[in-house]
Design a protein that fits this description.
about 230 residues, three-stranded mixed β-sheet, about 70% helix, disordered N terminus
Length: about 230
């Protein structure tokens, strides 16, 4: 009777697959970053110095570079035009640190050039935040109200905005990495085999976004299987 909510059902396998994918991607990026964080760049530039050179060569002088605590918490804030580099990147002269710093510069360059996927992703942020906050409450209310399929479907639709966000994130991140590798070569920050090492770091990091997208798709699929058809179990 009712929806399968409080006991094990076969769709839990979709959740487990998502967990495995996420853990594997995180392990890969950690091991790759740790490996190349022990390889010092020939230039001796730190992540912060490399970021500043790349930004200035790109004609960007209004983006501040700040240190942020944590490990691989690096990100670019387009609202404040601030590029934040983590403790393991900011003052490290390793291949890994420079690659990560260059990747975040790629986002700043995307912002300067009004890169359409980035602009679209930024537009989605408030929608996704709203959808994430209200999707499950709507589904639960729908279940409590004798299985109101309208509310349940609305909750699923709102949840799907998070999936769309993850999918849009993929080209944004891949493009930022391509820009990073190009700029590292053009500016002479890295040379020869160093660029290939940096590619390995950024490719490993990209797996986390692929895993996140796959996990969100699996979660949406599970919601559709459980609640989307309005079917009940006896």
């Amino acid at each position: 009777m009712g929806y399968p909510f409080y006991y094990f059902d076969p769709t839990y396998i979709l959740v487990l697959i998502g967990v495995v994918l996420s853990l594997a991607a995180q392990a890969k990026v950690r091991s790759t970053f740790d490996k190349y964080s022990r390889v010092r760049s020939i230039s001796g530039m730190t992540g912060a110095e490399a970021a500043q050179r790349i930004l200035h060569r790109a004609g960007i002088f209004d983006v501040q570079i700040e240190r942020i605590s944590g490990h691989l918490t690096d990100h670019y804030d387009p609202r404040r035009k601030v590029l934040r580099l983590s403790d393991s990147v900011y003052d490290s002269s390793s291949i890994a640190a420079i690659g990560v710093a260059a990747h975040e510069c790629g986002h700043a360059i995307q912002h300067q050039n009004s890169y359409i996927p980035l602009m679209f992703r930024n537009t989605l942020v408030p929608i996704v935040n709203f959808g994430a906050a209200i999707a499950w409450p709507l589904i639960l209310i729908g279940l409590l109200l004798a299985g109101s399929q309208t509310l349940i479907n609305l909750g699923i639709i709102l949840f799907s905005t998070a999936v769309l966000f993850q999918l849009v994130t993929l080209p944004v991140e891949f493009n930022a990495s391509r820009r990073a590798i190009q700029r590292l070569g053009e500016t002479g920050i890295l040379h020869g085999e160093e660029i290939n090492y940096s590619k390995k770091v950024l490719s490993a990091a990209a797996l986390t976004y692929v895993a996140a997208a796959a996990t969100s798709i699996l979660q949406l699929l599970r919601l559709i299987i459980l609640f989307g058809g309005g079917r009940r179990r006896d």
